[in-house]
């Protein structure tokens, strides 16, 4: 098959069908680690992965969907994944970027996560023409969704959702707040606390300098501390939000012993708060599942905006499919013209040899013969070219296969697409039920 053609296959483990434990079990190191593992599988040309608190997703490009599926199965094993074919993968990726698949509908953080995942895949050698176009289109859709609708008004991050949950269940008026972790989500939680009625805020992080950066733009009385003193600061906090990205829990039963009444919201994935913490008296623990339940009300309020975003997704999805179809048709057309050019050159050599044997041709005569040959090729292939482009737009891949047989001038059958299987392209345009 032409090396530029490819079909996308994808898998996802996400909050809409899996538990936090399932998502955590499906996580395979960093996004770059997942991409590297997929690229090691036979037949995989491109690979992309994005892993967030509520999802683990991966996409590959191969000659056909079955090859992609085998590679994904080999890497993800028994994880409770939902498989996606070419069209399903593309539509889902656009929906993710638009915020339609997020726990907090329309949240903005996913855009940065997708960009970071794209950079990681590119650095790992996983991004080629197919996925580059898909992810670029997804990011464009995400920007349109937020610029043209109100999908991201109000609560737009897990960090702000966590503080809202804490305020509703524990109350933030005059509270002492602690954020554990100074990454993007921790920074969002700190900003949300700053906008609340909390009296003071502490940000704990392994690197204190990073915690200090988070506090620079905040107005609430605040301090940056090291994780080494975590137990001390948990004991003096009324509300704690954790978001470290650590592989192991940073808040254990020992951390909260004697802390008194404390409300903890765990945004970590893997989890920051050990399960045994919930057994400690006066300590309440909430996690991402609790936030998902709370944000259902937010979803209802944003239903109208979501419908408009769905329209944008459908519009851009159709454009993306048309782009892929045009490229596939153009690749076949280019192969047809290349074959015709090889045959033309061969026949011109034969003709010039015969004519030169009867008397050497001058440059003008040679140019006239060559122009005649060029004109014949262009006129003969003009109608098939139009038909092939129309066939691609109509998903008529059988016509493309027939055209290759009828118009392939390579009598020895050496055309690069001579043995191509059009069913692979047709499968790429058929979405799973």
Automatic annotation (TrEMBL):
UniProt-annotated binding residues for NADP(+): 181-186
UniProt-annotated binding residues for substrate: 52-55, 102, 107-109, 113
Tetrapyrrole biosynthesis glutamyl-tRNA reductase dimerisation domain span: 308-408
InterPro entries in UniProt: 4pyrrol_synth_GluRdtase, 4pyrrol_synth_GluRdtase_dimer, 4pyrrol_synth_GluRdtase_N, GluRdtase_CS, GluRdtase_dimer_dom_sf, GluRdtase_N_sf, NAD(P)-bd_dom_sf, Shikm_DH/Glu-tRNA_Rdtase
One Pfam family recorded for the sequence: GlutR_dimer
Keywords, alphabetical: NADP, Oxidoreductase, Porphyrin biosynthesis
Cross-referenced HAMAP family: Glu_tRNA_reductase
Record-given protein name: Glutamyl-tRNA reductase
Lineage: Archaea, Methanobacteriati, Methanobacteriota, Stenosarchaea group, Halobacteria
């Amino acid at each position: 098959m032409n090396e530029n053609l490819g079909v996308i296959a994808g898998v996802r483990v996400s909050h809409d069908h899996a538990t936090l434990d399932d998502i955590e079990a499906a996580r395979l190191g960093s996004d770059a680690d997942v991409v590297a593992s997929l690229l090691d599988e036979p037949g995989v040309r491109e690979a992309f992965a994005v892993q967030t608190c509520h999802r683990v997703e991966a996409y590959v490009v191969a000659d056909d969907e079955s090859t992609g599926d085998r590679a994904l199965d080999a890497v993800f094993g028994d994880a409770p994944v939902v498989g996606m074919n070419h069209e399903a993968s593309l539509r889902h990726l656009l929906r993710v970027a638009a915020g339609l698949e997020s726990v907090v509908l329309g949240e903005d953080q996913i855009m940065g996560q997708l960009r970071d995942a794209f950079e990681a895949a590119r650095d790992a050698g996983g991004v080629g023409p197919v996925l580059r176009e898909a992810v670029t289109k997804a990011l464009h859709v995400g920007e349109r969704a937020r610029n043209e609708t109100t999908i991201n008004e109000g609560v737009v991050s897990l960090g702000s959702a966590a503080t809202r949950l804490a305020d509703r269940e524990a109350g933030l008026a005059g509270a002492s707040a602690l954020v554990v972790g100074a990454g993007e989500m921790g920074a969002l939680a700190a900003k949300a606390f700053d906008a609340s009625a909390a009296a003071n805020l502490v940000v704990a992080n392994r690197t204190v300098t990073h915690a200090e950066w988070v506090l620079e733009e905040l107005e609430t009385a605040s301090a940056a501390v090291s994780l080494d003193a975590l137990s001390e600061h948990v004991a003096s906090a009324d509300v704690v939000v954790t978001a470290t990205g650590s592989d192991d829990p940073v808040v254990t039963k020992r951390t909260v012993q004697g802390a008194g009444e404390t409300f903890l919201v765990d945004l970590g994935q893997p989890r920051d708060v050990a399960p045994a913490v919930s057994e400690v008296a006066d300590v309440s623990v909430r996690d991402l599942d609790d936030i998902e339940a709370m944000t259902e009300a937010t979803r209802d309020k944003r239903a109208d905006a979501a419908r408009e975003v769905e329209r944008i997704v459908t519009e851009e999805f159709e454009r993306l499919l048309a782009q892929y179809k045009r490229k596939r048709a153009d690749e076949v057309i280019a192969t047809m013209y290349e074959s015709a050019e090889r045959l033309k050159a061969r026949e011109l050599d034969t003709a010039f040899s015969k004519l030169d044997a009867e008397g050497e041709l001058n440059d003008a005569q040679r140019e006239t013969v060559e122009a005649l040959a060029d004109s014949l090729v262009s006129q003969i292939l003009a109608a098939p070219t139009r038909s092939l482009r129309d066939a691609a737009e109509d998903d008529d891949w059988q016509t493309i296969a027939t055209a290759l047989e009828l118009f392939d001038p390579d009598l020895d059958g050496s055309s690069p697409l001579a043995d191509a299987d059009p069913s692979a392209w047709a499968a790429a345009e058929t979405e799973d039920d």
